[in-house]
Amino acid sequence: MTTPMSTNTTLDAYEDGKAVDQKEFRGMIGSLLYLTATRPDIQFAVCFCARYQTSPRTSHRQAVKRIFRYLKFTPELGLWYSSGFSLSLRGFSDADHAGCRIDRKSTSGTCQLLGTSLVPWSSRKQASVSLSTTEAEFGKIPLLIDSTSAISVAKNPVLHSRTKHIDVRFHFLIDHYEKGDIDLIHVATENLLADIFTKPLELSAFARLRGELGVTGWRCVDNALIKGEIESQWTGFIALLVR
Fold it and tell me: CDD domains under this entry (predicted)?
């Protein structure tokens, strides 16, 4: 299993099919949520399936089982933190538009990198329904995003029919932009790391973004040992684990 969720997955709260044991389903979700602490590549899929814990059906359990099969297929993957990274902070943010079939709320995905090292990341459903992609992306606009309209609103917050009812609390971002605390930079969708936290992706895009987030296997550790990028007191221990 090469991805945790198929791009054809269309789950609904009112799926046909046999109901499954709720306690068992919640236990499966809980185990996967624990694993997301070191496996950001399953973050979206797990959070998406977690929405159906009230009345899980066979199709919901099958989607969860696919995540477990993906983990079984990729046991060597984990977050890699290099010892030689800068302290520059970058943030990435993305959102789909009305992706939830239950209430048409959008899903926000964010991640921050300290140098090349992934620190916090998230995938969550927005609290309110967005009428446009501008609203969906404006609600979480840290630094690098692929919505030019959301950037325009932040840089020139004029009254607009699509933005007047956006929650006031999000305007603190405009204050930080005007103070120079943050800079808003447009990035192409295919290069937006947060895209992996908003929807299921095809294998090529998924594998590329997963690697750019620092989720890698033992081969990367082998290369780091060869290049001397790991501090000496750890090399013997890590070499033993890798072998």
Answer: RNase_HI_RT_Ty1 (cd09272)
- Is there a contact between 164 and 205 (Cβ–Cβ < 8 Å)? no
Q: DSSP assignment, residue 107?
A: E
User: Is residue 89 a contact partner of residue 112, using CB atoms and an 8 Å limit?
Assistant: yes
Give the confidence band of 147 by pLDDT, cuts at 50, 70, 90: low
pLDDT over 50 at 119, yes or no: yes
| Total domains present in the chain | 3
User: Does one domain contain both 187 and 206?
Assistant: no
Structure tokens at 202: 């095809």
Please indicate, yes or no, whether residues 97 and 132 belong to a single structural domain of this protein. yes
Contact partners, residue 29, CB within 8 Å, separation at least 6: 46, 49, 50, 53, 64
Beginning with the edge strand found earlier in the chain, give each strand of the sheet holding 144-145 in spatial order. 117-125, 107-114, 89-95, 144-145, 185-186
Average pLDDT for 28-56: 95
